[in-house]
Amino acid sequence: MTVSGCCSNVLVCGGAGYIGSHMVRALVEHGYVPIIFDNLSTGHAESVGDVDLVRGDLLDRQALRRLFAEHSFDAVMHFSAKSLVGESMTDPGIYFVNNVVGTINLLEAMREAGVSRLVFSSSAAVFGNPLTARIAEDHPRQPVNPYGRSKLMIEQALRDYANAYGMRSVSLRYFNAAGADEAGDIGESHKPETHLIPNVLRAALGTGPELKIFGDDYDTPDGTCVRDYIHVADLCDAHLRALSYMQLKPGAHAFNLGNGNGFSVKQVVEAAWRVTGRDVPHSMAPRRPGDPAWLVADSTLAERELGWKPSFTDIDAIIDSAWRWHQKPRY
Ligand code: UDP
């Protein structure tokens, strides 16, 4: 795709994390100059190559002021967040402090510095339990866990910042990010790992424990939770388009990003077996608190407004991309 050159210097908060590090590569490939701000709590300095990395925390307002005083940014992409549904249920405080207070600190620093373009990593978790098979932007937002509530609070704040201060923003609501860079040298690596596809592949490889399937008594065809897996490269493509979009469109916008196809936990295990040719040792476990049964995107609005269309539409291809990364030696 071609992106019109609009915002050359881009601050990438959380640029050492899973999605952020893929984004940094995509920005460089498209001629932008990213600068990363990351506290390295979950990110990896090794995954950012020779891109400038400022180590700091969004809760440190002085550090943010210094960052904006020392650099001139045309736009900000904000990936830094706590993002585990289960953890948010048992320790909501860190979600509201990190995701809400941290982001408001960022918005205030942007405002003081006169930076008025933000692409915000939001989530399907803002919707809660779906009322329709596919979730479009006009679906009611009734999050069922503190993680989703923290993302929704920021979406609401962004509308107020648009109205009062003219801040332009695009909130991108990821469904389930998955897959890895084509070259296979950066990918998804969390400690502890809680996400389904990495856990499935680690079980298949024998580098992780057997997979626990959290709940098989949901109201879904096979009883396990259904999710819409979207490749990280397609998410990055949407962010690039969002940068261009904000040039033309004032206001606070939000788009749902998914493939529009749902796969159950059991279907993901079967796909991993097809892709890897290995058994995935697994057993049933109780439901994980906070998990909605079914989350599948309707991304028609992103297609229409951003001209975005996912290129990885096949679950086997998405898992294959993650598999190539998982087989490599890891940092
Ligand atoms: N899941 C599972 N076992 C795992 C990890 C996840 O059964 O080890 C399930 C989880 O309950 C959810 C789905 O897989 O229904 C996707 O979970 P993940 O943590 O990957 O993403 P989330 O939907 O929470 O963002």
Topology:
Elements: E1 9-13, H1 18-29, E2 33-38, E3 53-55, H2 61-70, E4 75-78, H3 85-90, H4 92-113, E5 117-123, H5 146-165, E6 168-174, E7 176-178, H6 196-205, E8 211-214, E9 226-227, E10 229-231, H7 232-248, E11 252-257, E12 263-264, H8 265-276, E13 282-285, E14 294-295, H9 300-306, H10 315-326
Helix pairs in contact: 1-7, 2-4, 4-5, 6-8, 6-10, 8-10
Bound molecules: uridine-5'-diphosphate (UDP).
GO molecular function: UDP-glucose 4-epimerase activity
Cofactor: NAD(+)
Domain NAD-dependent epimerase/dehydratase: 10-258
Strand percentage, roughly? 15-25%
Q: Helix- and strand-based class?
A: alpha/beta
Q: Biggest β-sheet: count, sense, barrel?
A: 7 strands, parallel
Spatial order of the strands forming the largest sheet: 3-2-1-4-5-6-11
CATH top level label of the domain at 9-179 and 230-258: Alpha Beta
Spatial shape: globular
Q: Regions with pLDDT < 50 over 5+ consecutive residues?
A: none
CATH architecture identity of the domain at 9-179 and 230-258: 3-Layer(aba) Sandwich
Q: Determine the fraction of residues in helical runs and give it as a percent range.
A: 25-40%
CATH superfamily of the domain at 9-179 and 230-258: NAD(P)-binding Rossmann-like Domain
CATH topology of the domain at 9-179 and 230-258: Rossmann fold
**Rg value:** 19 Å
Bound molecules: uridine-5'-diphosphate
The number of helical runs is 10
Distance between the termini: 31 Å
* Average pLDDT score: 94
Compute the number of strand runs: 14
Taken in chain order, the helices and strands follow as EHEEHEHHEHEEHEEEHEEHEEHH
